[in-house]
Amino acid sequence: MENIVIATGHFPPVSGGVSDYSQIIASEISKLGYRVFVLTTGHSDFNEANVEILPILSDYEKAITAIRRIKPLTVNLQYTPFIYSKRGFNLHLIPFIHGARKYSSSFITTFHETFNEFNFLRPYYLPLSAVQYASFLAISVLSDLCIVSVDYYKQIAPVMLKSRFRVIPVGSNIFMGESIDRKQSIDGKFVISTFGAFFHPYRRFDVMLKSISLLPEHVKKNLKFRCIGEIGSHPTFRGLITEFNLGDVAEITGRLTGEVVYNKLCESDLFILFEYVRGGRNGIGFRNGSFIAALSASVPSLVNSGKHSDKDVKRLCFTVDKLDPNLIAQMITQIYEDRDRLNERGRFIGDYYKRHLSWNVIICKLLSAINEVSGVSVARP
Known about the structure:
Strand order of the largest sheet: 3-2-1-4-5-6-7
Number of helices: 14
Radius of gyration: 22 Å
Number of strands: 13
CATH topology of the largest domain: Rossmann fold
Strand content: 15-25%
Order of helices and strands: EHEEHEHEHEHEEHHEHEHEHEHEHHH
């Protein structure tokens, strides 16, 4: 039985996208006959056959000693700047990577995020961006292969390193199966949904809610605006609901289990999500967990495109390049008037998800990457 090491700063019970991703790949890879060792920074109650949790990543000497004992096929580091240090300065990871490479057939880094891009409106970001970029560059150089979640992260990699970058999207952390046909809303309403585990200013909920407030009365009369997850419980979000007089059409669910979130999305006619930051992250792409969840539920989506939007987003979704509430309201109205075609689009999205974004595909691509750099034939799902 071959051994694989997953090194991650976040693992359950810690919540978040990196934590969920680490748990899922550990579980799925172990089911294929591998022994998986998870090096993490804290204790976990996760208990599954062929998966061993080692809470020793904070002590690099212990972690390297464990890797020497395990002799893994690969070490897969899960990376986003802020899970290893408060400011994302991660040059301290270099001794760990250097030591781990000695006792492993290969070293792969999965970049869930890379570094904070410099924002001219915030000059104090310059040293932050510079050191984070240095960490990104050093880790890329030391890794045999780099996995990124969106095309944009590969584009910003140095030219001499691009050949070692592979794009493998992040799967839905609320749904592990195959996408199903979208359900109809049980009360006949036109249901617009948005979803988020927490409120974040990058997510332009203000634009979304203002756009909905500008819809014509005949659309509002048949509208239900479903706010799924914890975002609806946030005081700022509730204040926006009141400000734009949407209390009569809003349904605020609060925190839900993954299965219930999935069912709520399946009962939606349209999913909306916008993300925009001047000089920084921009646009919705396959790195956005909420967006991937909507795709897994075969829900037609209206999103904004930008630097972080993958090339297929425009083919899959209704997109806007500018966050203009009047323009967005007109687009939603057009979608409402032609809603009979939404089922057809939903089937197209579901088929795309199965072929490109399902966990079965993601695990297959990950194991292909391991095979590529380790030179050992590995089992695939």
